[in-house]
Amino acid sequence: MSRIYTTHQGEALDVICRKIYGGESGYVEQVLEANPGLAALLHRLPTGTKIKLPALTRAESIPAIITLWD
């Protein structure tokens, strides 16, 4: 189930994702998908911007990505 988040002064989407989901990698893209037009706003979102936060899996339960140099 999604919820609505109202921004405070000076907040950025990546910081909001870190606070709500525990990370930003992959979450920012999904939140932008759920909020058409949000990407057109400034990096520091205007105070009072309503953002739909979809129900996503928290970062702790996502397995770590293995890279070739690990």
UniProtKB/TrEMBL annotation:
Protein name as annotated: Tail protein X
Top-rank lineage group of the source organism: Bacteria
Pfam families linked to this entry: Phage_tail_X (PF05489)
Organism: Pseudochrobactrum kiredjianiae
Listed InterPro entries: GpX-like
